[in-house]
Every structure is written in structure tokens, then in C-alpha cells.
Design a protein that fits this description.
CATH architecture: Orthogonal Bundle
Strand content: 5-15%
Number of strands: 5
CATH class: Mainly Alpha
Largest sheet: 3 strands, antiparallel
Length: 149
């Protein structure tokens, strides 16, 4: 399990023990786990929240492996997993970001992260910060390195 992805996701998603509607209108619980039609939750424990995060990251890992054909460092992988967790595998699959990664155009990848800061037609400060953190992680730096996340 990629610890850099987990740190980014924990930090930016926050967590909830109870289901809530996210800004996009989806029922969500834990660290941004989108509740599927066949799932039902009331109140989760810390361990259940962690288990859901691990399941979600394993799923994102499979998506990443299917979409990226070049070797990645643990930092690059962590940044991309956090990104996919946030925007979805479909959006990543269609993105120029994915194309740049597969072409090993690493300098241009950083610019591509910065394009994904919009929601509802508006720049979102939280997404600006998240994309900066993901871009820094991609480069091998992490402002979350010394945090207990």
C-alpha cells in the first residue's frame, strides 16, 4: 500500500464515521468512500474506516496499473493514486496528465496537475492546495512527510 497516497488522501479527504453527502451530492463515509448501491453503513469504527480506505486504494491501484505503462517511483505513484481517488479513473484515463506520464514528460506532468482545480465552474482553494501537494509528491517531496497522517 502506498503510504504517500494514504497520507495525501487522509489529509485532504478528512474522515467521517457516519454517512454524509459530499459536495458532489454522493453519499460518502470514511475517507471519501463513495457508498455504492449495495452498501449500507450507519456508524464506522476507526478500523472499518481504515479497511475501506485500503479497499479503495487497492481498487485505484488496479486502475493505475491498467492505465500507466511506464515505471513509477513511490512518490509518483502516490501522487497519481491520490489524484485518481479524487477525480476518478475515467477522468484520469481521458486526461492529458495520463498521456504526459506515459510519455515520461515529467516536467509537463506538474502543469497538468494544476489544471484540475475547478469544481462547479469555480476554482476551489482546497483543490489548488491538493494539486500542489500531489505535484510536490510526484517530484519526490511531501509537505506531509513529517505529519502523523
Amino acid at each position: 500500500m502506498n503510504t504517500y497516497a494514504k497520507r495525501l488522501i487522509r489529509y485532504f479527504e478528512g474522515h467521517s464515521y457516519r454517512p454524509y453527502r459530499c459536495p458532489a451530492g454522493h453519499w460518502t463515509i470514511g475517507y471519501g468512500h463513495k457508498i455504492r448501491p449495495h452498501e449500507s453503513f450507519s456508524v464506522l469504527t476507526d478500523q472499518e474506516i481504515e479497511d475501506l480506505l485500503n479497499q479503495d486504494l487497492n481498487e485505484r491501484q488496479r486502475h493505475l496499473a491498467a492505465l500507466i505503462q511506464v515505471p513509477l517511483t513511490k512518490y509518483e505513484e502516490g501522487a497519481l493514486l491520490s489524484f485518481i481517488f479524487n477525480v476518478g479513473a475515467g477522468a484520469f484515463q481521458r486526461s492529458t496528465l495520463r498521456m504526459k506520464v506515459n510519455r515520461k514528460e515529467h516536467g509537463e506532468v506538474l502543469h497538468e496537475f494544476r489544471k484540475w482545480i475547478w469544481a462547479g465552474g469555480k476554482k476551489k482553494p482546497g483543490l489548488i492546495t491538493r494539486r500542489m501537494a500531489e505535484a510536490q509528491c510526484y517530484l519526490g517531496n511531501s509537505f506531509l512527510e513529517n505529519r502523523n497522517q
